[in-house]
Amino acid sequence: MNTQYYASQNGQQQQQQGQGWSSSYSQQNSVPPNNFYNGGFAQNGSPSNGYAIQQPMVPSGMGQMVAAQQAGFIPSPFYQSQQQYQMSYSDSFENFDDNGSNGYNNYVDSGSGYNNKGYSGSEMNGWGGSGGEYTENNLFHRTNSGINFDKYENIPVEVSGDSVPAAIDNFTDAGFGPAVMENVNRSGYSKPTPVQKHSIPTLLANRDLMSCAQTGSGKTAAFLLPIIQHIMAGGSEMIKPPSFNNGRRTYYPSALVLSPTRELAIQIHKEAAKFSYKTNLQTAILYGGRENYRDQVNRLRSGAHILIATPGRLIDIIEQGIIGLSGCRYLVLDEADRMLDMGFEPQIRKIVGQGMPPKTARTTAMFSATFPKEIQLLAKDFLKENYVFLAVGRVGSTSENIEQRLLWVNEMEKRQNLMEILMNEDPNNLVLVFVETKRGANDLAYFLNRQHIRSVSIHGDLKQIERERNLEMFRSGQYPILVATAVAARGLDIPNVRHVVNYDLPGDSDEYVHRIGRTGRCGNLGIATSFFNDKNRGIGRDLKNLIVEANQEVPDWLHQVAAEGRIGSGSRGGNRRFGATDYRRGNGGGSFGGNFNNYGPSAPNSGFGGGNAFGGSFGGPRRPFTNGGFGAHSSLSSSSNGGFGGGQRRGGFNNGMNRQNGGGFFSNNGSQAPIDHWQAPRA
Ligand SMILES: Nc1ncnc2c1ncn2[C@@H]1O[C@H](COP(=O)(O)OP(=O)(O)OP(=O)(O)O)[C@@H](O)[C@H]1O
């Protein structure tokens, strides 16, 4: 048994009672330092019990209840009454980004002790220009790629659009200036990943782009490098100088990158600083959280050629006249499907409508690993008509570097199963555990610490400083377990995460793809274990398809669950997965045949014609997603091999597949749902 996760104050072996575990834990005496936290919770537990670290993780108002429950080993509220369960609240759709509506509009710190003290994020010493605040060491300190990096070459690539710029094979072919090229080298990137090979020349040619590639395959550099190159090469032409209005200075970034979460914004900002290191280019960041408001605004004063922001805070700053978007030549939506779903779409429209050059006068790029068809359709509003669509692998597929394990685990057995997983985990690995609710995250982290497993949590109810510190303590390995809500599902790149546990599965298979994508990044291998039970039947079929597609073993019970015919993962219906390609290809799957570039000898070339099977029966311009989608899926899925091509299984999928559309969308009756029905309802 590995014991490094365990920590105790007294050095004695302990045996847990009342939970059915009898493991003995060796002691590491590494109780977390209390001074990471800002106190105020001492009444909730005895400081001498060694768990003081837990208390600040409990949101105010819940501390006493949770502490009492934990201290007495009362089961968590999660397992108690329905009423209590409902008191917990999902992190899925809120608190990703504090915005004006949360009361932070005009917040100026008044003694919280956080701001103006130089604290500015876990890894960073500030948000200022790219050169000033970072050192070469903390920007370029790790080698990223794993043993499967070269296998990216074998992933088939679909590119569509008019006169698509030719892909590059090497970074040296991109025409980067010496400073950018040097930063590529400093980063240890010896060759571009497929998404970079195509996206970089496309954006360098100022073409709009919708770019879809698996998690961890290098999308960030794919948009940052060409933007930095453009701004550097364009010089003052590219930069609108600040203006004075009513005594206030307004700054005009040349490029805007929008991120759905604060931590992802921080990460992208650091990447931007990395690639613009030792240049005059200034990067800036704006994201929610009251403690960092003034600091962020102050740092804008040194200029902001590239601004990375979360939408709510950006709107707030725009409304105050501190930022103007009329100089913005580049707009990037990272995690674009999330940015355009119902939670963020109004904010994105507002931002784009606030003086930003029209789409014909800017370059717009969208990146994600998943891109449901309904969101692709929405995305059109922001893209020039002749945008380039790029898909590396099937859109929405999981990385084959991730070993996906599914366990049937009833609610009451989840903790025990998690303990078993953690006990068998290599102590040098980081483990990311996803739960559904903020309270669930608190409870589980608290529980694990009581079991002497060093854990921290991250969710939308923590103060921003706690979020960042907890994330950093996880990243550094000091606390090797992070219990997270969906706030950590997308984009985060933490090198040593070797295991993701879906303690609570999400209701949406795209969310699953992003969550497990926190491991198995950049050619490294990872494991994703998901606890499945009756509550998750809705996602069963989608999960089965993802696992089959990744050539992995499907448990017998999952075959059964999938066959039961409960369709669709919570939000958008299961069938959307099979429309996951460029929706503009609406005239029969056959058109796919000639449009894939095969980067490797082992890529399944023959598969790409698979859509032909559907060409006849689904053709027609008014059903834009249907045919291409099936074609792409059947071709890329190594296991389906024609199984979708009109045989019995296909028939099963087609009939009544789409709940929202009354079965019309993919159904054989040919009816077409109105576009506004494709808006995904929130789970
Ligand atoms: N060409 C390259 N060579 C080596 N490492 C690379 C290269 N490109 C990117 N990386 C590294 O790969 C890791 C994953 O990259 P990145 O975070 O951009 O992935 P992503 O595709 O945006 O993932 P996600 O979908 O989860 O957001 C990072 O650590 C990055 O530094």
Q: Topology of this protein?
A:
Elements: H1 63-71, H2 82-87, H3 136-139, E1 157-160, H4 178-186, H5 194-204, E2 209-213, H6 219-234, E3 240-245, E4 248-252, E5 255-258, H7 262-275, E6 283-286, H8 293-300, E7 306-309, H9 311-319, E8 330-334, H10 336-339, H11 345-352, E9 363-368, H12 373-379, E10 388-392, E11 402-408, H13 414-423, E12 430-434, H14 438-450, E13 455-458, H15 464-475, E14 481-484, E15 497-502, H16 509-516, E16 526-532, H17 537-549, H18 556-564, E17 596-597, H19 612-618, H20 626-636, H21 648-654
Parallel strand pairs: 2-9, 2-10, 5-7, 5-8, 6-7, 8-9, 11-16, 12-14, 12-15, 13-14, 15-16
Antiparallel strand pairs: 1-10, 1-17, 3-4
The chain binds adenosine-5'-triphosphate (ATP).
Pfam families: DEAD, Helicase_C
Organism: Caenorhabditis tropicalis
Biased composition (Low complexity): 1-30, 632-641, 655-671
Describe this structure in words.
Among the domains are: 137-392, Rossmann fold (3-Layer(aba) Sandwich); 402-563, Rossmann fold (3-Layer(aba) Sandwich), CATH 3.40.50. It is 29% helix and 12% strand. The chain is built from 21 helices and 17 strands. Strands 6-7-5-8-9-2-10-1-17 form a 9-stranded mixed β-sheet. A 6-stranded parallel β-sheet has the order 11-16-15-12-14-13, with helices on both faces. Helix 19 runs antiparallel to helix 20. The longest helix has 16 residues, at 219-234. The model is unreliable at 6-132, 568-579 and 587-683 (pLDDT under 50). Adenosine-5'-triphosphate is lined by residues 144-145, 189, 192-193, 196, 213, 215-221, 369, 491, 493, 517, 521-522. It holds the Pfam family Helicase_C.
